[in-house]
Predict the structure.
Amino acid sequence: MTAPELPRPPWASALRQARLEAGWDAHRLAIELLRAAGPEATASAESLTRRIREWEAGRSTIRERYRLLLAHVLQLDADWCERRPGPGSEAEQVRAVTRGLITLDELTGGTDLVAPAVRNAHAAHQALRADPVPGMASAAAEALQVAGWLAFDADSGLLARRLTSSSVLTARAGRDAPAELFALSQLAMQDAHEQRPDQARGVCEHALDQDLPPRVRGLFELRLARAQGQEGTPARALETLNRARSRLRGESQDRDPPWTWWVSEAELDWHEAMIHGDCGQWPQAVPLLESALHGRPGTYRRGALNDAAHLLNALTRLDSWKAAEQVLRNTIVPGVEHVHSGRTQTLLGRIRSRVAERGGPVSLKQLVELTRSPRLPVS
């Protein structure tokens, strides 16, 4: 007598169903996973095909890295493998999805993640209305803030502002001051991106009037420096940035919230470069953008592509065609296949127009045409 076959767990059935709906066999799914993983892929197509069959049979669990890649490739919600029913677990579920979205953003950019992020934020808001407890308010504020960031990276400015503003109000209602400050800093970031220095300065000065932890104060000084540069006071901007740099280089203290981790040396170099760029000082911006690009971790593909696009922008403004071609070949052309960032594509679109207008070399024009993302419409 053979042992009865155990039923597949729900996540295994969901994986098989999603693969079939995509019209793929296991080998094709393995190829797509390897393509999404890019240079970090370590498995072969054959071994990954066998692993997929094990997953679909429920005989092997799926590690987080593969869960996130599967969600990206098969267009599944980031929590597809983690949903667990049960009273009182809504906040934990929301946070699990938010963590998955943050991890995917670093690998793939925000364009493909906006829809699941908005669904997660909506679910969190609905759960908060049904059970307005502090833990749910914090989870909802974080979900709204992350959705706002992803919409910003997708170049959906109005949606980004609406989601981030909702995060501010949700955090304030839940008396989560660190979450409110994070969302406010994101609004200041968007103001600077949209060349609204007066609004960015107003947000920053409001925050800086408070008793802030050192790294949070440094973050708002960083945003303020960008606004000051756009207002035509570069010396003042660099003075403010240097204050921020000294705070953010220091070790985290007990009062510093966990979300200040992302302000790295590369991020500081990028902001200093943007101050020079806002003032038309492109020769000073180039080495800082090179430092930012080379200072990113290898897993931070979205940030590296954005750095490279801004470096290309500076180089093409200086007619540095040879260096521009090198950045295109080494980073941007390989990167756009894996990273889908609407704001980076908008910048690359402006660069394509500039290269055409300024009569760059034919080889450069051919390379820059390869920067169009396969997931975004031709501009």
Remarks:
- The two ends are 64 Å apart (CA to CA).
- Confidence is low (pLDDT under 50) at residues 1-6, 83-88.
